[in-house]
Specification:
328 residues, alpha+beta, ten-stranded mixed beta sheet, four-stranded mixed beta sheet, 7 helices
Length: 328
Amino acid sequence: MWTRYKRLLLIGMMIVMLLSSCNPFSQQDTQKNGLTVLTVEFNSGAPIPNLFITATDVEKGEIVEDAIGSEEGEATFSKLIEGRKYAIAATTLENSTKNDGYTTIENFTYDATKPYYRLETHFSRDDQELDVPVVMQNPELPHGCEITSLTAVLNYYGLDVTKLEMADNYLPKQKIRAEGGQRYGPNPNQAFAGNPRDKSHGMYVFAAPIVKAAQAVLADKKANLRVTNKSGATQDEILQLVREGVPVVTWVTLDLSEPKKSLKKGWIYEGETVQHEAFMNLHAVVLTGHLGDKVVVMDPLKGFVTYNVDQFFKSYRELGKQAVAVHK
């Protein structure tokens, strides 16, 4: 009897040990598996296979991991850090090098207790989108997102003009100069600070000078178009313009990340005495479509990109609600 009892006790202990030994392995597997991104089609929700997916650390602006989705539309990331903010981007492998197709980008904070992230993608043109051509700013205009976006809008209306013609002949520009260790330059609401061709010293410009550039070229080309400064417009007002067939140049940040400013990189505006901070991740794109909870933009660095509409307009507001529209 005692022998039988010891045998049962021993078996019970072995079972407990075996079960307990499973837990560490399962925890390791969970940690190893990390986050699984599921890419699905926007309208149907069906999985989209074989997409090229990247995870970018928003704060550092660096890609920490990339992966190719499976036939089931799943890609696993194991290098993400709990509590950090990432931009998840999905596109075709071909478009990852050519930048002539769609990219979907969404920002999120990684929560290890949520192992799945569902990313809705859109890779086909739609009647609700405006057929704005892709115009890429690089390599000639590393800081020319604003004037390149305007060029794409003018091309959309059939105006035969290039980004370099617009940057060299029509964009109001003013140099940034250094005196006694201090930088001086234009108010970006009045002129481009530096030159968009200059990778080292070019900065940026806001809506008003882009309006002046558009007005000047429209006058020279005798184009029957008009341009308006839509800065300060609400989300609904801008989306209504797009629904009416009017593409809108819109100021946001790169990948809709939090605005980054630097006093060291800033300068004193002409006629003032106080140094202003400089935006380090300012960007401008063309808003071309609105599909459910997504917006579609022509990004002069990436081509066509879809963003979450709320995230897009949050970034628009954080950049001071800067926008320009060209109308028939």
